[in-house]
Amino acid sequence: FNTSQTIEIAVNVTDNIGISLVRANVTFPNGTVQIFILANTTATGPKYNSSFPIPELIGAYNITFLANDTSGNLNNTERTNFTVFDVQKPSTTALIPVVNSNFNTSQTIEIAVNVTDNIGISLVRANITLSNGTSHIIVLANTTATGQKYNNSFPIPELIGTYNITFLANDTSGNLNNPEATNFTAFDFQNPLVFDARPVAAS
Predict the structure, then answer these.
(1) Are the C-beta atoms of 97 and 180 separated by less than 8 Å?
(2) Share of the chain above pLDDT 70, in %
(3) Is residue 44 classed as helix, strand or coil in its secondary structure?
(4) Residue 165 CA, distance from chain mean position
(5) Quick count: other Cβ atoms within 10 Å of Cβ 167?
(6) Cis amide linkage into residue 90, ω under 30° from 0
(7) pLDDT tens, 22-55?
(8) pTM
């Protein structure tokens, strides 16, 4: 199953006298245990069930069924298990720089993106394609001060034109985000330097 799914936990129970209580003892991948009371209705016959919302916790879940009859007899021999996987991709928002931004060559700009995931983030990168077609991949870092924001600085080289940026985010389960892209254009706003004029003034 996938994290965040809600599944049915159920078992059929019969007895020659009568059923008193049916429970499911669920052991989570981290070792914690939770007991669920399973209910029976006339519509389900001998079936006792409950819904189980799977938490954001991947791994193997073990279930032991406990059935008591009205005479105090216990059956705890039925067991089952299931495994939970994470197939949810990381989400990327708030791309920096804003699409179609303009900068000057030689500026150092911020490359950033907000990344969230239901389990955890493993690696965030920015693939920067320069105006001459070459590519650079930079790793974006996260600190507690920035929350969901992953960023790095990028010194624009002396190369005018459009730079395309694709953000790549991997979570700890190996899922990759749907690539998000932005771009900026580097211009040359720097005036030429003129010096050492001849003849020398007032000569």
Answers:
(1) no
(2) 97
(3) helix
(4) 20
(5) 25
(6) no
(7) 999 999 999 999 999 999 977 668 999 999 999 9
(8) 0.79
Quick one: how many helices (H) and strands (E) in the chain? 0, 17
Paired sense of beta strands 135-139 and 91-96, if any? unpaired
φ, ψ at 184 (rounded to 5°): -150, 160
d(CA 91, CA 116): 5
What percent helix, strand, coil does the chain show, rounded to 5? 0, 55, 45
Dist. CA 168–CA 122, nearest whole Å: 11
Q: Which residue has the tokens 């590519």?
A: 135
What is the token pair recorded at 41?
Answer: 């209705």
> What type of residue sits at position 184?
F
Residues of the chain with pLDDT under 50: none
Peptide bond into 199 cis (omega under 30): yes
CA atoms within 13 A on the CB side of 117: 24
Output the six-digit token pair for 109: 């700009």
Side chain identity at residue 46, one-letter code: P
The reported pLDDT for the residue numbered 15 is 93
